Every structure is written in C-alpha cells, then in structure tokens.
Amino acid sequence: MGTEGWCLLLCLALSGAADPVPAAERQWRAVDVVLDCFLVEEGMHRGGFASDKTMVKALLVLKQVPVLDDGSLEGFSDFQVSTLVQDNPPVTFEASVSPVQIPHAEALLHADCSEKEVTCEISRYFLQARQEVAVETAAWFMANLQVSGGGPSVSILMKTLVDAENTALSYPVMNLPLGPQGTVLTTVEFQVSTQTPSLSLQRGSSASLHCGFSMAPGWDLARVEWRLQHKGSGQLVYSWTAGQGHARREGATLEPEQLLLAGDASLKLPSLTLKDEGAYICQVTTSLYQAQQIIQLHVQASPKVRLGLASEALPPTLICNIAGYYPPDVTVTWTREELGGAPVPVSDTSFSSLRQSPEGTYSISSSLTAEPGSAGATYTCQVAHISLDEPIVTSAWAAPPEQRTVAFGVLFGSSLFLLVLLYLGLQRWQATSSKICQDSEALWVDALLPPNKKKE
User: Fold this and answer.
1) What is the three-class DSSP state of 356?
2) CATH architecture, domain defined by 304-399
3) pTM here?
4) Residue 175: in which H helix or E strand, if any?
5) Of 283, 284, 278, which is closest to residue 198 (Cα–Cα)?
6) Sign of the dihedral defined by the CA atoms of residues 179, 89, 72, 107, in that order
7) Could you count the other beta carbons within 10 Å of the beta carbon of residue 164?
C-alpha cells in the first residue's frame, strides 16, 4: 500500500469527524506524511537544480511530522513497510524530521482530501567542490515538493550515512545503502520553502515575497540572495552576507532579525512597476548546503475604457477605447439592444493595432458602424481583463436617422434664430453709437464758436 491507502484512511477520518476541534483547542500530533514521488536515477542536483534524466517510482515518508489535530487523526495509522506491494516496490525514503521544522505539513497531509496533488521529485544532491566532507560515508538527496493550485512549495535536503555493518541491501543503480527493511534511511538537514509560489498584484501596490528556511543544529547561515529572471535576462535584487544587506532594487528590504531568529528571508518590494515582473529566486546558503525557491510575480494594470462617437456621418461609427492595461491579452465584446428587446451580440467589429506606452502598458481600440434601425438602439462595449474582478461595461445610445434629422433641423433653426438676434442687436448698437457720435460732434463745434454765433 502506497500513499493511496494512507490518504483513504485520512479522508475517511476527516469525513467521520462530525465535531471538529476549535482552532484554539487543537493539539499538536506527530504523524507520518507519505508522498508518491519520482527518483531521478542519473545526473547531478546542485543547489536545487534537477537534471532531466530517467525517473523511477519512489516513496517519501516524512517520519513523525508535527501537525495540528482537529480531531480527525484519531484513527490515522503510521507508515508500515510491510504494507508495501512485494512486486516491484518503489524506492522508499524514510526521513527523520526531528532536526528541522517541516513547514506546510498540513497542506501536504490533506492534499488528496482537498482534491489537490503533491508533485514530488527526489534527486541526488552533490556538495560544492570547495567543501571538504567525507562524501564516501554519506549520500545526499533533494526532494522538491509542490502542492497544486498555487499551494506551498518545499525543498528538503536529506542525508544518509553508510553503515557497512548494518547494511544488508543496496539499490542497484545508484548504489544506495538500504536499511534492514529495504528502505533508504535519511535525516532532514535543511529545507527552504515558500507559501506563495505565484503572486498577481496591481501596479503601484507592495509585494511580500515569502521565503522561509530551517536547518539542523551545527550549520550557520552564510548568505541569502534574491535574483530576478525575466525574458532571458537576470539581475541581482537583494543580497545578505555576514550580517550586511545590500539592495540593488530601490526600496527592497529584508528583515535581519526575522532572518536570523525565525528563518524568514522574505523580500518586500514597494511601489511595483511593470519592470518588477518576473521569476524571483530566493537562494539560501549555509556553511555546507544551498537550496532555493522560485516565486513568480505577475504585475497587472487595469484598463480604462471610454465609449464614444467617432463620426457624425450617417450611419454613425462608435469607437471603444481601451487604454493603460497589462498584460496585453484583453477581450472586447459588443452587444446591440433595441428598445424592449434582448441584447444581441455584434460580430462585425474592427480593431486598431496594439499600441504600447513607454511604461509598458497597452492600448487598443474597437469600432463598429451602428445600425440603430427605426427606433434606435443601445450599443454596449464590454471589456474583460485578468486584472479585473468583473468586466467593465459601457453603453451608448444610437438614435434613428429620423431623430438625427429632426435634431439637426432643430439645431439649425436655433442657430439661425440666434444669428438673426445677434445681427439685429449689432445693427441697433451701431445706430445708437452713430447718434451719440453726431450729438457729441455738434456739442464740440458749438463750443468752438464765438458767443454771438452760437445757436440759441
């Protein structure tokens, strides 16, 4: 019996738990977490990178992992080697987790019951050449675990010691030492994890890229490095070495206290721009080991939509402008609705070329020739984008030709009436001004005449 049997027992236990224990009253319980895996038989695994080689079925048993019990684990049994199938059994790794904290254990344990999958790949891990370790007495393995649906990701480094006196079997291809029960006995020495392997955030917001780690006693933290990979190019974002942090991206921060006390190497980025998008690599290095996690950061910008009349000619042309959005994929749909009728999709539309601003956002326009009919019609432009919770909807009324003609006639008549009033007012003002000027001239002439010549 592999993981299917344990998952079945666990799911039955969960379904039978009628009265879950409140979160405040839950108790820690140590259980075996059993995961179906694949073992990479050939190639190297250095610093968390796996080779694409031949894989065989394997089983990873994380022994006695502490999880919070909500009352559903009462009948859950621990792993037994005797329950494995006898014909072509998987390579089984039993890993003691006591030296290192295993994060997200509940997500790993309940994955199948939550209709999710755990991808597990185990491969050999080779120490860096500069490390002087008696490699002939030990073997190292890296297990990369990923919960589907955007769940947590954990990289676990395991070590096994070769005991020539107690080893009765060995795995033929990789010459692995097997314990008395035919399993590879290991102990977890180091782990690096993230609870958010993928993030989608709005431009201008702040991001917190989670990266945690835990290591066995005796090892020291040597370096933490964050790098950004995007469109084939890479750059250093933040580095921490020997107690000193250096930010290459403006505003990037990492809390040294949390780093040293809680194993939290999370990176904070304020005021996101489109240039911040990409794959962030959190690489943690100890005095002996190195592992990493990759967090995909997607930066989004929501579109601004404006619907207007592009042409006054008959028939009218409507244009829907969509501007300032990212990423470039956008869906635009048109509908036409007559008075008292139902909306009808409109397919006879055209699009402008896609335009990109210096900031990296995109703009596009969609237009159509309106056919309002005898009673007029409402045209609606609906825009859907990944950054929007709901599509943006904007509408415009297209009047029938008769109303447009009447409206034009009314507008022309009104304009003509105003012009006539303006002309008459101007004529009256000119007449008044002329009379005033004549009177003023007469008074001026009269003032210049001798007293005997003045008019009585």
Assistant:
1) strand
2) Sandwich (2.60)
3) 0.79
4) none
5) 278
6) positive
7) 7
